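Structure tokens please, single chain.
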Amino acid sequence: MVLRQIEKKYPKMSKAQQKIARYIELNYNEAAFATVARMAQAVGTSAATIVRFCYMLGYSGYSDMQREIRQTLLLGEERQAAEAASAPVMSEPSAVQMYEICRMLMSAKNVIIVGFLESLGTAAELLHMLEMVRGNVYFTRLHSGDWSEIINMLKEDTVLLAVSFEPHYFYTHRWVQRAIENECATIVFTNDALSPFITMAQQLVCFDLQRVEGTTIINISPVAQYIFDMITHICETYKDILQPLKRDPKNYLS
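Here you go.
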């Protein structure tokens, strides 16, 4: 499968190849029928680069890769027809998207994490894990006096990572909106396929999370695994630029 090959080889791709990979993932239906010249134009590269990309994935050429994309779409249509009476299933977050999120987080000057109420625990875990691999990670609290200082960091060199599980909180939306107004990159983790952030976030990761029956408690284990996979990828791919938070040993029991 083309997408599986892309996910497997994405970390070692050149920037030009990663750009092609992201285009295919986001425009899979179009990739099935576009000419090599059309895809090259859409990506902003040459037809020869597209063909070499196909070779790198293990295909004999562009037509060979495109044939498999079409077969995958056909199988998907048949599966959808067989399951037409079933409720739609939320798709799993892709590895390619995760790699791109890691790149955004590690290339930004500052990372600001936002999460309130039911989303607070996951946001705090992101803070803890990201501080293990890089500096300049900031965390907003609902009842805190540091908002104005952090808001001033919302610039082009900053990434805002917001966690918003439904019901979505007004202040989270306000932070994301402010980030967009300041041309700040935005990433949103949510459990809502109809999230109000779907047209706002540069990267939106939607998790299929279950609530404990009869309660408002959310099982966030899929998100915790995703965060762990992110940090693992960062440690493997960006090991030369890791900047873990320095902790004072005097503050810990020996």
